[in-house]
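can u pls check wat happens w/ D-xylitol-5-phosphate
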Amino acid sequence: MVEIVPSILSADFARLADEMARVERGGARILHLDVMDGHFVTNITIGPPVVESIRKATKAHLDVHLMIENPERYVTDFVHAGANSVSVHWEACRHLDGTLEMIRSAKAMAGVVLNPATPVEVLEDVLHVADYVLLMSVNPGFGGQKLIPYVLEKVRKLAEMRRVKRLALPIEIDGGVHPENLAEVVRAGCDWIVTGSAIFHSPEPEATVRRMREIAAQATAVRV
Ligand code: DX5
Ligand code: ZN
């Protein structure tokens, strides 16, 4: 089942509970929370206390994307704050296997994220210790950027690796997805589609989620 995963980065943070309720009414079951530290990426966003407050405001699956240095110091805090899945960047992990294990031991899904320029082949030997893979389709740090087309080829390669290894892990994509390129993204093999500005900057976020879910369902039907 393909999921449209709204990223709250483009929402109005002063009205976050309302914003989340709107996209959930549109059918969103997973919400994407972007954590940035001003080091791994230039931007700064939220930490565990905010995730804890968000947890109290929604029952949705909270998908926390850590764009931070030394993620192993914080993964457990984010799970305790209420994250259902936590992803760490391959580029930020010296001991990726150990960090994924920390997330799993804290009882959340463990995800690994690749920047656009990092080849999917680096995951060859660790795919079985990850619960999902997030492929960045923009350089991380900001919402509202354009999708980098060659990332779709990476999605196809990863989908093939997953098939050969008989693994069922979801492939997530993040950055520059909007209703117009969504079908192509789904057909490439993505399962969790993160989308921020296309939803929250649209006049009716609820209707946009609904529309994107329909487009995704139709594209899945023709997926090979
Ligand atoms: C970018 C973030 C994304 C961002 C996507 O670094 O990881 O989650 O919110 O935003 P859009 O959909 O606007 O590209
Ligand atoms: Zn993200």
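The chain has one domain: 3-220.
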